[in-house]
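Can't paste images in this forum, so I'm doing it all in text. The chain is below; anyone willing to post the predicted structure tokens underneath?
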Amino acid sequence: MEMPVLQVALDLLDLSRAVAIAEESVLGGADWIEVGTPLIKSEGMAAVRVMREHFPERVIVADMKVADTGALEVEMAAKSGAGVVCILADADDSVVGEAVRAARKYGVRLMADLINVADPVTRARELEAMGVDYINAHVGIDQQMLGRSSLDLLSRLSGEVGIPIAVAGGLDAVTAAEAVTAGAGIVIVGGSIIRSADVTASARAVRASIDRPEVCPRSAESPDAAIRRLLADVSAPNVSDAMHRKGAMTGLLPLSGAARMVGRAVTVRTVAGDWAKPVEAIDVAGEGDVLVISNDGGTHVAPWGELATLSCRNRGIAGVVIDGAVRDIDDIRRMAFPLFARAAVPNAGEPKGLGEINTEIVCCGQEVRPGDWIIGDESGVVVVPKDRAYEIARRATEVRKTEERIREEIRRGRTLSEVMELLKWEKR
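Text version of the structure:
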């Protein structure tokens, strides 16, 4: 085995799409082609056979995640053309033993996936002693969304076993290089390649980074900076999809055209037209924050206008959301400042001082707490609970990646129905 190896994980549902993406991946330098678990569940052993036929010079990995009937499942994959078969590391020792014996009989290699193993170092040593060929330091996608890192798992395993270590879970060109530096012999990359609009270029970037890992340093990033960066790179619809259609405010109009905003909420509760607390909140908010104003539903008088907006812009505030009305829209649009409201009226309110700042509110049908993340664009505004912000930002990024690939396939002439194979996947 030449090292490092680039293994591309085809975690897709449709075989025709998987073949096309695999072809582009090979052009970009992929060594091993993994028939991912979703693809095997969707298409069965036919997926392994087809990949073997299309890529006779590449190692085909069958990610079977074997948990029982070790001999039977390894035999199935081997006879279908797999060169490497994946089993679950936490399978019973009897299952592992049968899988090892079948692998030797049929001339294939075994990779044990450490996903969800409580003591990965001890289990990796046991698996090596039982005859497993590779250990996979794998953190599953749902765990990745919560911030768990496959690189952390890899660092625990490095030097603990004598067999090659693979690493999988959310890797891209930068983190793949870090994986090689940390001791990975097999770098498994899925989403950042297979969901790319240019699969070949993405695979080539990963290939280059693992061949020369010293040129891909990563700078440290705080959790807040990571969330802001991720949310800035997705749309409000992406976030809504990631939240399963939760969090979207209703009745709002984007009053500044294409202006976008991302930031933490500074909440304001006031009554119709009382602009004291909304304006005072400008002094409370920090750079990059978003003011979210509950105006008691009134739209006949405005608690906000051009002068307040100018103050926000000067303070570096990212945007304003008002469950109520705004005036001076022409001046605000010239500023290109992100502003969302339910209506526009010329009537100004009065600064009476009623209400509160940074308390839990309801704005346009959504509960908003101080510190929740707010993303807004021309499609609307979505509230992301602060305790799930990193997870949702990561999931929204995966939604965006998926759409990029679908968009590219539509550009190539397929319809959305064809790409998604809607007739196949309609609910029965």
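The mean pLDDT is 92. The radius of gyration is 26 Å.
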